Each structure stands twice: as C-alpha cells, then as structure tokens.
Amino acid sequence: MLLSQIRLREARVESKTQLLKATDARLEQGIGDLVALLQSANDTPETRTRVTLLKEQVAKALARSIGYYRTKRQETRAAMERQDLGYQPEDLRRGLAALDERIEKRIAQIIELTRSLAVNQEFEKYLVEYDEDHSRWGEDNKHYRRNEDYNQNRRVAAITDKDRRQVAEALAKNMEELDRRERDLVSRMATATGTAKELLEEDLVDVRRRQGIRAQQASELRVPTAAAAAGVDLDRARELQALVKDMSDDLKEDFFAVFRLYNELLVERRDLARLKSQLAK
Predict the structure, then answer these.
(1) What is the pTM of this model?
(2) Hey, is 181 helix, strand or coil?
(3) Sign of dihedral through CA atoms 227, 228, 229, 231?
(4) What is the pLDDT of residue 127?
(5) In which region does residue 138 sit, left (phi positive, over 0), alpha (psi from -120 to 50) or beta (all else)?
C-alpha cells in the first residue's frame, strides 16, 4: 500500500515538474521576445512618445515582478531554517537558485530596455528657409520654421532622462542594501555555529556575487544602445501597442501559474520524502 502511494506521488511530482518547466520556459521566451521587440524600436516625430512610453510600461512591469520573486525568495530562505516544515533542503536550494536567476534576468532586461531609450541630442530650435522669389533680392527673404526634430527630442528626452535616472537610483539603492546586508552577515557569522553558520555563509556568497553584478550593470547603464534601434512609423507603433497588450495579458497568466506550480511542487516533494522515510523505517 505504501509503495503504491509512493509511485503515485512520484508520478504526480514528475507531471507537475514538467508542467512547471514548460510554463516557465514559455514565460521566459515571451518576456525575452517582448523586450527584444521593444529594444529594436524607437520613436519618430510621427509616433511622438508612443514607443518610449511602451518601454517605460514594460520596464515597470518587470520591476513589479521582481518584488514577487524577492518575496518568494524570502519565504523560501526562511523555510530553510524551519525543519519542522519538512521541506527537503535540496528542493529549497533549487528554488532559491531559480528565483535568483529570475531576479537577475529581470534586472538585466530592465537595463537593456533603458539603454535602448533614445538619447538626448542637440538640434537647432529653428530652421532657416529662404524665399525663392529672386525678385526680392536685396530684402530680408529669410523665414524661420520650428525644427520638428528639436520638438521631438524634447518630448522624448523628458521621459527618457527620468527613466534613466530612476533605474540608476534603483541600482544605487540596491547596492547600498547589499553593502548593509554584507556587514550584517559578517557580524552574525562571528557568533553563529553549525547549520546556522553554513546558511549565513551561503547568504554572504550570494550577496557578494550580486555586488559584483550590480557594479557591472551600473557601468553598462551609462552606455546607450539607442543607435541600434530603428525609428518606426505610426502604424508600426500602434502594432507594437497592441502586441504589448496581448503579450502582457498572456505573460501575466503564466507568471502567476509558475508561482502556483512552484508552491504545489514543493509540497508534493515534501510529501513524497515523508512517504519514502516511512517506507525506510
């Protein structure tokens, strides 16, 4: 009877594992495609700020998703100190690694989008035009016309400068948090022993890894990639708006499905381990 329960539970774990992998892969592919799509485009005087605002919208959505990942990471890390919960340490470590990977990937995608924003350029505010009526020679036949490139640059720069500043500030804030975390971990390790010390050592390795990544990202952020993006016309900008909406709805569904499946799989693996422990007695 117990052996049959184990086989049934193993089948459920395998089925749920495959479903989680497939859903996660679809989510990652979709987000990657969406970011690449927006990276390759920028606004023109015809589209005004449509594409720029789309990039801002997607970057903010990615930032919100990081909050979910970090909350789940905190819960998973706390569970590692709770043996009474019965979760297998290797399952929790596997979960931490996956969550860490997603957090770093989202931050990198936000930076990629931000780097692709149009850069502020210098344009003459007015263009000079001359009257072609030669009979007016000797008179002032110059006319001044507002430069649309100047207007467009001002429209876009008002958004892009703010977005770059906010991302740079978020990176700086996170680096400060990591520095504080590092000091706290070093202090706690001085008196910790056994398993508690091992966990703190793992945390310290993770913090120092992230410090290196953030320093590199802060440097990369200062190098724009807007030159590789093509200006789009109004029809293409509208297509992008529709695509972003449709893809965002689908991705949101997959995003929360991944969290649900992650939680369910942890419980399934825990219950399977309990059954195997009973069989071994």
Answers:
(1) 0.88
(2) helix
(3) positive
(4) 64
(5) left
